[in-house]
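Predict fold of YtxH domain-containing protein; 104 aa.
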Amino acid sequence: MRTKAAFLVGGAIGYVLGTRAGREQFEKIRAQAQKLWEDPRVKSTVSDVEQRAATIVKEKAPEIREKVTEAVRSATDTVRSRTGEGDSPYGTTSGTTSTPGATS
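Predicted 3D structure, encoded as tokens:
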């Protein structure tokens, strides 16, 4: 029990001392990061990357659209073949066809 209490007291002291030094260090790092982000060279590089990315997306969009369309068609065909939707306008369940309004 004594070991547990000593551990908790040590942890509490470490937490208090760490938060004071930690907060100060955090503020320094945050200020440096903000200064770096506002640097004109960084802003220019970010702008260039954004423009390149937009160009690539515009170039690849038709190709991606075609691939997605084909994937959706394939998935739709697979689902239809598994459900038997193509055989009957009402679909099938466990090999039996259902009729609207019919009761079992």
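The chain has a mean pLDDT of 81.
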